[in-house]
Amino acid sequence: MSILIKGGTIVTADLSYRSDVYCAEGKIQAIGENLDVPAGCEVVDAGDLLVMPGGIDPHTHMQLPFMGTVASEDFFTGTSAGAAGGTTSIIDFVIPSPQQPIMEAYHQWMEWAEKSATDYSFHVAITWWDESVYKDMGTLVHEHGINSFKHFMAYKNAIMCEDETLVNSFSRCLELGAMPTVHAENGDLVFHLQKKILERGITGPEGHPLSRPPEVEGEAANRAIRIAQALNVPLYCVHVSCEESLQAITRARNEGQRVYGEVLAGHLEIDESVYQHEDWDYAAGHVMSPPFRSKKHQDALWKGLQSGNLQTTATDHCCFCADQKAMGKDNFSMIPNGTAGIEDRMSVLWDSGVTSGKLTPNEFVGVTSTNAAKIFNIYPRKGSISVGADADIVLWDPNGTRTISAKTHHQNIDFNIFEGRTVKGIAVHTLSQGKLVWTNGELRTVRGAGKNIKRPAYGSTFDAMQKSTVLNEPQAVNRTK
Ligand code: URQ
Ligand code: ZN
Ligand code: ZN
Predict the structure, then answer these.
(1) What are the DSSP calls for 299-324, one per residue?
(2) Among 117, 166, 342, 443, which is least packed by CB within 10 angstroms?
(3) Averaged over 403-420, what is the pLDDT?
(4) How many Cβ atoms from other residues are within 10 Å of residue 471's Cβ?
(5) 60 C-alpha to ligand 3 centroid (Å)
(6) What ligand is nearest to the CA atom of residue 59?
(7) Mind listing the pLDDT tens digit for each residue in 185-203?
């Protein structure tokens, strides 16, 4: 099976140029003009299209058991919907229940993910701590290609990490050369505020953002950043939603600390007025954490992306249908948190970011694919158009348009936060492992075709950081008397 992508303009994170791309055996075999290809090679006419690395969504939760239910999107339907929008790889999350053996949870998620249509990888959440967790983190890094560990600072009495676990796990990450990541909201504050708001008789979705104001996120982001600084370990902040977190990240980065920030397409484009909507289902459909914020924060997040203080975009694709959201009909804190995004992230970002001039096409590739590949140590296998890279490619029509709707999307959810929005910038063809999985509006994904992507521990970055930690080792004072 080989494919020649002919007549397109290659757009990578660092340059744009006209050339053809020849793919075979799942890899990019050649880039150039007048390429010599075997008889029978399929030719895809890419004239007027941009040839970009397939999107990487570093934050999804397919079929996540959460808040008493299970996310409605599974690994096959979710990766298929991603392909329809130009995304060809996901990094999902293994989230052990507290006291659940980490390796048991890992094997469970690997089994669920076998049905994926495109490639997948995992962050593993550390939701509790003892010596077995310490050991299992080593097994995951050394034997299973895991190089990132997630820490939920929210969700008290469930998967929330106390500071002691953050310190233990971050320290272990440094030993292993793995990236710690955080969901930064102060879970104790959320718990307290939820109680206060419910006591005031506010039970609807409008209570959700009231219980998670920006300072609740800013405090946790800053705390995680300072813990990482004290331990001399890098840090990746997921779904940065407010100015306060961005300021904490920017300050750290300006002081040379290795901190990365991720922003969701939803947080860039959807504002908090959705929670005031008179229709309960509509407001509840937007309940996710951190909540959507005011325009002030959206503007700050865009500036974060433009300035390079935020490096990646994601979706936190975690789908719950109306009947599931209704579990919180009388109490907003029981509404399963999460919504969709994997199919629309790239079009929304192109429509808002590139057509407006906020981002160049090259920067668009950086924030939708290449930066995540680099941060999570799978570049240039992923996130590049280069010989030897996986042939994960999206042929993008910068002038094509589509109108987003739950009635037509491929996501397995009855709601879409971008409902009715007509976006410019669409995926015309998507290739995964060198095969067409989306072409001219038709999904051609195959259940189980996706591969698990092993991500090696970090070498140089961490070696230097580990050494500097040792070099700065405080020396005992030699007191002779
Ligand atoms: O917190 C997360 O990232 C998961 C549980 C998805 N839900 C959400 O509201 N973001
Ligand atoms: Zn989260
Ligand atoms: Zn998440």
Answers:
(1) HHHHHHHHHTSS-EEE--B----HHH
(2) 443
(3) 98
(4) 8
(5) 6
(6) 3
(7) 999 999 999 999 999 999 9
The continuous run of DSSP H or E covering 357 comes out as none
CATH number at residue 356: 3.20.20.140
pLDDT classification of 469: cutoffs 50, 70, 90: low
Report the run of H or E that residue 360 belongs to, with start and end.
none
456 DSSP 8-state letter: P
- Report the distance separating Cα 103 and Cα 108, nearest Å: 9
Q: What are phi and psi of 441, to 5 degrees?
A: 85, 5
Ligand nearest to the CA of 93: 3
Residue type (1 letter), 365: V
What residue ranges line ligand 1, CB within 6 angstroms? 61, 66, 183, 288-289, 316, 318, 337-338
**Residue 189 structural domain:** 53-386+452-460
Going from the Cα of 478 to the center of ligand 2, the distance in angstroms, rounded, reads: 48
Ligand 1 atom nearest 155 alpha carbon: 1
Radius of gyration of the chain (CA): 22
pLDDT digits (tens, 9 = 90+) for 336-386: 999 999 999 999 999 999 999 999 999 999 999 999 999 999 999 999 999
> Is 126 inside any structural domain?
yes
DSSP state of 45: E
Cβ–Cβ < 8 Å for 419, 344: no
Tell me: pLDDT of 480 over 90.
no
**Cα 311 to ligand 1 centroid, rounded to whole Å:** 20
Q: Using CA positions, which residue lies closest to atom 1 of ligand 1?
A: 289
Ligand 1 centre distance from Cα of residue 342 (Å) = 14
Q: What digits encode the pLDDT tens for the residues 229-255?
A: 999 999 999 999 999 999 999 999 999
Give me the sheet containing 16-18, strands edge to edge: 16-18, 9-11, 50-53, 393-403, 422-432, 435-439, 442-443
The backbone torsions φ and ψ at residue 423, rounded to the nearest 5 degrees and listed phi first, read -115, 145
Question: Residue 47: is it exposed, middle or buried by C-beta count within 10 angstroms (0-12/13-18/19+)?
Answer: exposed
Rounded distance between C-alpha atoms, residue 23 and residue 388, angstroms: 10
What pairs with residue 90 in β-bridges? Answer: 57, 120
Q: Is 162 helix (H, G, I), strand (E, B) or coil?
A: coil
Whether 445 and 116 have beta carbons less than 8 Å apart is answered as no
Report the C-alpha gap between 63 and 109 in whole angstroms: 9
Number of structural domains, the chain? 1
In this structure, is residue 235 part of a structural domain?
yes
Q: Which atom of ligand 1 is nearest to the CA of 59?
A: 3
The beta strand positions in 68-111, using DSSP E, are 69-70, 87-94
Query: Of all protein residues, whose CA lies closest to atom 7 belonging to ligand 1?
Result: 338
Mutate to test the pocket of ligand 1, among 337, 415, 417 (most ligand atoms within 8 A of CB): 337
